[in-house]
Design goal:
Two copies of one chain form a homodimer. Chain A is elongated and about 65 Å long. Helix content of chain A is 51%, strand content 11%. At the A-B interface, helix 7, helix 8, helix 9, helix 10 and helix 11 of A face helix 7, helix 8, helix 9, helix 10 and helix 11 of B.
């Protein structure tokens, strides 16, 4: 790879560029962002070498990383489709993968060059200045190729993400979306729902006044981007709805248990949670 | 005050003793714990001066701080009732206050000497060796006296907690329990419920393998003590049930919104959450 194009010069796109440049300083990085000031920030931060004027120009790069909000992916794919060399690799980084895969047809006969990817990494801060070459170090990156994806492109994507320090795995887009609906999308909705519920009340100020450290950690993710999480919720709607309904059934069992005053059952359910959460904290579930 | 008795020599009791001793080194601290090794730990940690052999003995102190699990409070009150001087101050530190107040009758004609207190402070670690004189610095301590509580005892309790660096407030036990059912007890149940739900599944290991930082913070409180939280849930049952049902109704609205694919409404609800959570994080709701 001689040239890398980063489309969407935010935290993820810029961290990917920074990680690869740290390994191979000769790589030329082209940046494009629908918001020009974002691209300028990436240039000032030294993460990209050139701002590309349009998608036609970035389409010429050897590797394209599309790191835009998930709902903007189709537009980008349409913008590059007719200008892609037949050798290039195209990846996205979105949190939902069935929809990404559904859009690969927009690349026409280049669809085999598209490898959907999801790096499980992030920071509180966003934008080019928050980018870090070490962001993906030790983190999972999940690739969800389809039967139409070229195997040499999957191999190339794997190598590139491994070069950033990530642990690369493959699974189907459907399995990915089910897992992340549970472990990521659901907790975000639950945290948003709690803060929103308090905010509606007459005594909202009093509630927030006395909220302490338990509330702080539980709701940290309720300060996440509404645009990003709205898109994730709607793009992974079916899997997320399954999870939300499943959680609501679970909650009904907890309500019944408290209502009955079933001390034994309540302590037992809590002990199961504590045990799993502690083992998770110790890394016992990692492969 | 010449002598302080700490009944239940865990984190809260020992931190209270350490804070007062730091201010007034001449105070003699008696410690009692149903678990002798806990009392010995407090002695070794230098937080208490003497281990009391029984409740009759600790009842002689000028000030008694009962820092036992909430369900053990009645037994302690019964144990000290017939041995209290008419001048002493008795406080508890439990997370539920209507039940604490309901037990004050166990002190018979000394019931006016009992001031229910709830310090909003804690640490990940428990026990005497985790105690810190600064634990209550800047934290809220809520007193919930009844019409039967002696006003000079409330004044004395206020002064003592202020001496630990805490900000002391008064409210009714009912109001306290409603507020903390919402901001503390409910999030604990929700976090316990999520981890428990995952633990039940065939693919539990896979879910825990891919759970990342959002899950980590959301579920930190799901590693809390099952005994302590079972007791809190059952002792504050009515207020907690109200909150759980209210949250479930809110969740139904979120499910409807995702089901309808109502992008505008979803983004708007998330934006309300983000706004409030960020303002909370900046301390805008503090008095």
């Amino acid at each position: 790879m001689k040239t890398l194009a980063v489309i969407g010069t935010g935290l993820i796109g810029c961290s990917f560029a920074a990680a690869l440049k740290a390994k191979s300083p000769s790589i030329k990085v082209l940046g494009f962002d629908a918001n020009l000031s974002q691209a300028q920030a990436a240039l000032h931060a030294g993460v990209i070498d050139t701002i590309a004027p349009d998608l036609m120009t970035v389409a010429q790069a050897d590797v394209l990383l599309i790191a835009v909000p998930v709902r903007a992916l189709p537009e980008v794919l349409q913008g590059i489709a007719n200008h892609l060399p037949s050798t290039s690799l195209v990846m996205d980084v979105g949190s939902t993968k069935s929809d990404a895969l559904a859009h690969q047809k927009l690349l026409g006969n280049k669809r085999g060059q598209f490898v959907p990817a999801h790096p499980i990494a992030g920071r509180e801060k966003s934008g080019a200045f928050a980018a870090e070459a070490s962001l993906f170090q030790g983190k999972h990156v999940i690739l969800t190729p389809s039967s139409e994806t070229a195997s040499d492109k999957v191999a190339q994507a794997t190598e590139l993400w491994q070069a950033t320090g990530a642990r690369v795995l493959q699974m189907s887009a459907a399995e990915h979306d089910q897992i992340f609906a549970a472990v990521s999308h659901l907790p975000h909705i639950l945290a948003f729902a709690l803060v929103n519920e308090f905010a509606q009340r007459d005594n909202a100020n009093t509630l927030f006044q006395f909220a302490a450290s338990g509330f702080r950690d539980f709701t940290r993710i309720a300060a996440s981007s509404p645009q990003m999480w709205r898109d994730i919720a709607l793009n992974n709607r079916d899997a997320l709805l399954d999870e939300m309904k499943r959680y609501q059934s679970a909650l009904t069992r907890w309500i019944d248990c408290v209502e009955r005053g079933d001390s034994t059952q309540l302590a037992s359910m809590m002990a199961t949670s504590k045990d799993h959460r502690e083992r998770w904290g110790k890394g016992e579930f990692e492969k």
